[in-house]
Design goal:
About 30% of the residues lie in helices and about 40% in strands. The protein is an alpha+beta fold. The protein has one domain (about 40-165): Nuclear Transport Factor 2, Chain: A.
């Protein structure tokens, strides 16, 4: 396939070249992944620590610490509701949802400019409507950088469909 570069703007030429180099440098798909876990960078570890503290604060109903962490426009998506910052803090403070224990199985961080996404696979023990429930979740946390401070902009719970999820 021949591309006629004289009609393509320079920025697109550079992008096409970068894609070609990426494809050429990509190992075959049957390559074995590394067995050792990649150590987290300082920035990744900082986000994982913030996320862990957040779960502790939610369990302890520390709404002051959570209020400082949550962005004013933050959105919280639960299995049955979507809430604002004020609504989420009220639910935690009142105990309508009481986070008891977050057993974190895996957590990872991805950066997109000044935005960071933390993905956490967990089993969450909570009291909801007076009933103690345990659910397997993949939780997505979106953090934005605001004046050198990380703020939680979104927290979404996705219930995982696993064989043991039925009990």
């Amino acid at each position: 396939m021949l591309l006629r570069f004289e009609l393509v703007p320079t920025s697109i030429q550079a992008m096409i070249l970068a894609i070609c180099l990426l494809v050429i440098g990509t190992p075959p798909s049957n390559a074995q992944p590394s067995k050792a876990a990649t150590p987290a960078t300082n920035a990744e570890q900082e986000l994982l620590n913030i996320s862990k503290k957040k779960w502790d604060w939610m369990s302890d109903r520390n709404v002051d610490a959570l209020a400082a962490l949550f962005d004013e426009q933050a959105v919280f998506v639960h299995m049955g509701a979507t809430m604002s910052k004020a609504q989420e803090l009220d639910v935690i403070k009142s105990g309508r949802i009481q986070y008891k224990k977050a057993d974190i199985e895996e957590a990872s961080v991805r950066f997109f400019g000044g935005t960071a996404i933390v993905l956490t696979k967990m089993r969450l023990l909570a009291v909801v409507g007076g009933n103690e429930v345990t659910n397997p979740f993949m939780v997505t946390e979106v953090y934005v950088q605001e004046g050198g401070v990380r703020k939680l902009a979104s927290l979404s719970f996705t219930r995982l469909l696993t064989p043991e999820a039925g009990h």
